[in-house]
Amino acid sequence: MHTFTTFKRWLPALLLGVTAGFAAAADEVTVAYQTTVEPAKVAQADGLYEKATGSKINWRKFESGAEVITAVASGDVQIGYVGSSPLAAAASRSVPLQTFLVAAQIGSAEALVVRNGSGIAKPADLAGKKIAVPFVSTTHYSLLAALKHWKIDPAKVQIINLRPSEITAAWQRGDIDAAYVWDPALGKAKENGKILVSSSDVAKWGAPTFDAWVVRKDFAEKNPKFVEQFAKVTLKAYADYRANPKGFVSDAARVEKIARLTGSKPEEVASLLEGNSYPTASEQTNILGKATVKALTDTSAFLKEQGKVDSVQQSYAEYVNPGFAKSAVK
After folding, report:
1. pLDDT tens digits, residue range 151-196?
2. Domain residue ranges of the chain, discontinuous segments joined by +
3. Is 82 in contact with 299 (CB distance < 8 Å)?
4. Which of 18, 82, 204, 309 has minimal Cβ neighbours within 10 Å of its Cβ?
């Protein structure tokens, strides 16, 4: 399990060894994905990325953004799907990456669920309870932001670092009282629990989160066409969903592909897709500017305040590149 401490300890060595670890060319690329339910999973299942880029793509599944960042930093992965919190932490540590697409603006797809019978009826009841969350994830950031909003000292809560699959196992054993996580672990927890707050609520309190596609800077410089085509396929999937959400999920085969890649139940896919917002190509060019830079700046400042990063960058502009989204529009 890659905890925040492990990530922090390994990173200097990883950055020193990036040249040795980075050997992929555009003809074979390793892409890290997570189990987030989103429209582009259909394109992934159908091999549309390979067709558009003409490259062999090795798709590797990860359970958390911290694990993805570790793989990107080492050079084992060239493109990865991460949340805004691990992205901000990585940028604060000067990992050589760029955000080239905002994949999803997170809403109800991530939430804090409390176990039935745990005695938690309101936020104040969280004191002394065991809450599981993947450290340095968007849900970790949202949990800390929610506790701050509720004026609850995090030290008064037992926050445990677990990956989503471990959260499910711990929940089934009755080892934890609550969890802030995403699907499929979220759906399994809701079977005998209730949502106390979602990331949609936390965003309204001033701590929005998002998922993003990032690329190693050196890979992007050598293979701009690959990144451009990757962005184009992704944005086409978002546009198809946005144009007709009901029609998109009415296709049983399409839904099954998403469920298979994410581990979610087919009957949950429609509601999970509704839980986030997927920016179109025209929206990307506006978002991938001051808005994303500000979000990374604010998130990094919060993480430093919470002791999760040692320092922050003077500017996060170099970690955001709208050029590939703009090229995809053309």
Report:
1. 999 999 999 999 999 999 999 999 999 999 998 899 999 999 999 9
2. 29-105+209-328, 110-205
3. no
4. 204
